[in-house]
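Reopening this one. Same input as before:
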Amino acid sequence: MEFLSAYLDAEFEEARAVRQGSDAVLRRRTEASEDFMYSVPGYIMASVYGRPPMTESQLEEYALTVDQVAHRKLFLVSEHRHRNWASLFAGYISGDSPLSLGAYGLLLYCAEIEGGLKIISSYYPEPLSVEVPTVWRHAGGVEFDDVDSAVRVQAIEAPKRPEHLRDWDMRRELAAES
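Same output, byte for byte:
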């Protein structure tokens, strides 16, 4: 939970820098958020943010949209056993805009790499899907299709979107039963 919260702080600063930071500031913020990531051989894990080259006046205009960036919320963290990883941690995270803070926006898988946690995979929810459990599509890093049921779940904050709330409740209940 602490690791993912720290990552979300770094990601928020990077997202703000995309809209209002110089190229040097953006580069430092991207490096800071990517320090939480690890690319397993054969898979790329990198920041989802970036921006095309902009003139100073274009950047000034883009900076006016910084209020469209929100600090993501961490809804739930679950621990899973996996045949290739001792423990695999899944973080269910909100969207990154003020309008999407109550809905799932990102699923990150973390594993212990070289003595510390690292993000090794990311998924996004299927757009417009109302299925429970939530349907996730691979975005980057290791692709998982065989994650065992959670052995432990830490619920942090409930999502507001009805189908995501049902998914959140289901994950908590399944972990309580095991």
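So the earlier flakiness isn't reproducible anymore. For the record, The mean pLDDT is 94.
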